[in-house]
Write a structure and sequence with these properties.
alpha+beta; six-stranded mixed beta sheet; 28% strand
């Protein structure tokens, strides 16, 4: 429901300094607030009109700003009250999106509101937070256009702010094509976003979402793909972690833990199809180049893959003890032999041609060079992973 509203909450107050003429900002409101058992976690989404006057309206757009991931009230109806203004307010961020405004278009589209609500619901339900540099595959998969995925960056105008209820940053959701997502995953989300800012089709620094955009930046600049591939080969992937639908389990007979790191000899790692598609990249562009990689699971626990010859004071694994865990974090030593075996396994699966996973795909890897360490890798559907946590 769209209506005019006042600007008495801390987020609207911040935005008012940039849009002083929009005191009665257009606001999408949920019919029943989340704290009254409503389905949508965002109480509101403010929609500002940015006429881009400095460029004579060339990049006019609707600027969507979420309200609800941070604390709007300070009375603990949704988020815990902070002890000092330096602490994060709620989840510590709000989401924004800049959607291209056509000439004489006065009614803002409603789909960005639904998208921001869906992303907020993921965070409220799983505790998984978004951050600058993240990528979100298939978030616009219902659309029949080329803009199907999203990258996350800091909003170009709204910076980190101190409110009376804590610290808030503003993360902008930027639409991208298959090509742009692929290079963001293989190389660097931040570097791809910086390249995208060079194109007027995206509003330059505004990074506008335009569902009518029919070409990726690599089609708009025929030489850009070659340059990016050269940089990828030279630098490897900058993607050091991923938040995904995955979870891990240790051998049951000694799975109890008191918070101290202990060695284990058996690990089961459950991943969804989207995570499995990333694995060849992680193996060759991170681990094979002696860089570690972190999977942040749906249960909030982390699995850290550590290659041989990796040097870090926080690294606890050795060939004698290739798996160490304290219950919340699990470190796994990945030998060159294991990297190669996993890479062959994923290449043979041809996951790029699969739309979904049936029952599951599983494989056991056993390595005597890692003190008889056993890895059980299971690829299962996202729905089954979510159902597992709803029922346990």
């Amino acid at each position: 429901m769209l209506e005019q509203n006042d600007t008495s909450d801390p987020i609207s107050e911040i935005c008012l300094s940039f849009y002083p003429d929009q005191i009665d900002v257009l606001q999408a409101t949920t019919q029943i607030q989340y704290w009254l058992n409503g389905p949508d976690p965002l109480d509101y989404v403010n929609i500002y009109i940015n006429n881009d006057e400095k460029n004579n309206g060339l990049n006019s757009h609707f600027h969507y700003v979420s309200l609800g991931l941070s604390d709007l009230y300070g009375d603990e109806r949704v988020h815990k009250r902070v002890k000092s203004a330096e602490e994060n307010s709620g989840y510590g961020y709000e989401l924004t999106m800049r959607v291209k405004k056509e000439i004489n278009e006065n009614e803002p589209p409603k789909w960005p509101v639904k998208l921001l609500q869906a992303l907020a619901k993921y965070t409220f339900q799983t505790g998984g937070i978004l951050d600058e540099g993240d990528h979100i595959p298939n978030v616009l998969s219902d659309s029949d256009c080329k803009i199907r995925h999203a990258l996350v960056c800091e909003d170009s105008m709204l910076k980190i702010s101190q409110t009376r209820f804590g610290r808030v940053k503003f993360l902008q959701i930027v639409g991208c094509t298959n090509d742009e997502l692929k290079f963001a995953q293989e190389w660097s989300t931040r570097k791809i976003l910086n390249l995208m800012k060079n194109f007027r089709e995206l509003g330059n620094d505004y990074l506008l979402v335009d569902l009518k955009r029919s070409k990726s930046i690599f089609e708009l600049d025929s030489d850009l793909r070659r340059k990016t591939l050269r940089n990828l080969k030279k630098e490897g992937s900058f993607m050091s972690f991923v938040k995904s639908k995955c979870f891990w389990r240790l051998n049951l007979e000694c799975s109890s833990n008191d918070g101290n790191f202990k060695p284990y000899d058996q690990l089961t790692f459950n991943i969804d199809l989207e995570t499995a598609r990333l694995f060849p990249l992680i193996l060759k562009q991170r681990l094979d180049k002696e860089n570690s990689f972190i999977f942040n699971g749906i249960d909030g626990r982390s699995l850290i893959l550590i290659p041989e010859n990796f040097s870090n004071s926080n690294c606890l694994v050795t060939k004698e003890n290739p798996v160490q865990s304290n219950g919340e974090e699990c470190q796994v030593l990945i030998s060159k032999r294991l990297i190669d075996s996993l890479y062959i396994f994923f290449q043979q699966l041809k996951l790029d041609k699969k739309e979904e996973i049936g029952e599951h795909i599983s494989r056991k890897f056993f390595f005597d060079d890692l003190n008889e360490f056993s890895l059980y890798l299971r690829i299962i559907s996202s729905e089954k992973i979510l159902n597992f946590f709803e029922n346990n």
